[in-house]
Amino acid sequence: MVAFNEFSTVPSLLRNVVENIHKPEETFLIHKKGAAWEEISFKETLERADSIAAFFLEKGIAKGDRLGLMIENSPEYVYYDQGIQQIGAINVSIYPTLSEHEVAYIINDSGIKALLIGNPFLFKKILKIAANCCELQYIIPTFNDFEKIPVPADVKANVIPFKTLLAKTVSEREQKQINQRRREVLPADISSLIYTSGTTGTPKGVMLTHNNFVENVNVCLQQIPVIDETETFLSFLPLSHVFERTATYHVCCAQGCKMAFAQSLELLAKNMGEVRPTVMSCVPRLLERIHDKAIKSGTAAGGMKANIFNWALETGKNYREAKEAGKGAGLILGAKKAIAEKLVFSKIKEKTGGRLKFMLSGGAALPRNVGEFFGDLGIKVLEGFGLTETSPVMAVTEYHRQVYGTVGRIIPGIEVAIQDVETKEMITIQTHHTFREDFECAEGEIIVRGHCVMKGYFNKPAETAEAIDKDKWFHTGDIGRYYKGNLQITDRLKNMIVNAYGKNVYPTPVENIYLKSPKIDQLFLIGDKREYITAIIIPNRETLQETFQLTDSFFQEEAPFIDNPEIKEWMDKDIKKISGELAKFERIKNFLIKRNPFDIDEGEITPTMKVKRRVVEKKYVEAINAMYHEAVEAE
């Protein structure tokens, strides 16, 4: 591959591919159209991007203008992104699952002038808020029959079908103008605004530059040099998230890999069998599901089949551990591994398409036992760590050296330090080149400095200064240490919840929304590393007593939680009503009603009345687990 210094911006990456890696007619994008998979070449992709660029140049879009996308992963996302970035516009991708209020805030805060819309549901959502989005000039639906959806009279933005942009003929003069604008895009220019919620609940636009993205891809490819131009990636995580944007889309643009789009999460397993990917990014929850399903399938029948399955897993474990210890497997263990591969492992691998070189897990912590399970099967799962503000990768597992329970080695070109939370003294500063397999240290806050750190928060200088100190260290808010030379995440400085899909949920603003109900006195969110949000609710005692004519003795009963179905139904009405104000991943799916408030004498809250998350979750772990089990059974 040609050195990146010639191709230092996002729109220049594909130009590198067609000049130095692949012929323009070779396949770049793959998507399902009807019953068949359609292949789209690099040439077609760039031509469509040029048509989009020419359309926006005609409309007067200038360098630095913000253009939005609210669309599922698809070729249309790529055409639009490539088109706008090569004329210096900024990509503002909005999560399709966000509430109308949050979407309106992002559109107005960033000043989006045009918004690409992926389906009728999202189109209707935008039409409800568009009249209050003063700078929004163009709404661009990608789907057919959008004309059947009435546009409110107070919406001033023009609705233009995406096919109109694609049909734009690019004149010679416009092509020269596009080429000139592309040359004027600098590495230090902002490539994208990605909004992440702050602890106050107000989303913050993370400004990521072309250099942030390109250098992050460059060094990750150095760290995982086995990725080459022959790979086929299967994309299913949202491109509105920085993880999928970098680890799949930008890697494919840089290396010339094929990029296939899964139809949906529900059809992912089917799509894996059809596309037969060699690499894919994923979240821990997907790997946990594959793990659970494989274990259940392998042992459900009992008898000889279960014995063979368990024997194969034990053999795989022994083989993996021997390899990791640097020992030869030996003839006997090698022969056992070959039998296990034929009888068990090959059948599991075939369900992934049979060609996976590795999977890259990010967005949340991967349980160690799940990582080891895939290692026992001979399927590599590399784990990475980073934040939106770090574009995103700070560390990633090396292909040839894996320490389960860690997020790998620091990437080249940055410094990652561990800082004492109390004293602010540096415990250690590590780089890619200081790596030692035996290095360990005490835990503290993880802070980072270097090319991966964002330019700042859009229009928020105070928040930027709070996150990035005077010495240019970005404070991640995560607690960690070094273990066997690799970075290990151990805790969070604040009580942010990261669900099993990698979605960040800040408890305070969500809890405050639910506290609008007069039935609720206090609410404690649960959901870290879990599939959805639940809560422990402290009801307003007076309201509860009056509604159900309860005596004081009711609140003196020993059981900590109220199991009266009428009371739960009464509370559920408000929960469901209020949930509409929140994004889907923030909504409470099940809850426990606590008979009495959290108690300072029981160590459940601090003197300043803050709930001690670890204490409460540990104390009520059985009831919490039962609540999740109950919700699953109800589905």
Describe, in short, the structure shown.
This protein has about 625 residues and is α/β, with parallel strands linked by helices. Helices cover about 40% and strands about 20% of the residues.
Account of the protein in words:
The protein folds into three domains: 4-185 and 224-264, ANL, N-terminal domain (Rossmann fold, 3-Layer(aba) Sandwich); 284-448, no CATH class; 497-634, GMP Synthetase, Chain A, domain 3, CATH 3.30.300.30. Mean pLDDT is 92; it is low at 1-5. The chain is built from 20 helices and 27 strands. The two termini are 50 Å apart. Strands 7-6-5-3-4-8-9-20 form an eight-stranded mixed β-sheet. A five-stranded mixed β-sheet has the order 12-13-14-15-16. It has 635 residues and is an alpha/beta fold. It is globular. Keywords: ATP-binding, Nucleotide-binding.
Features:
635 residues; alpha/beta; Rossmann fold; GMP Synthetase, Chain A, domain 3; 8-stranded mixed beta sheet; 5-stranded mixed beta sheet; 27 strands; disordered N terminus; ATP-binding; nucleotide-binding; ANL_N_sf
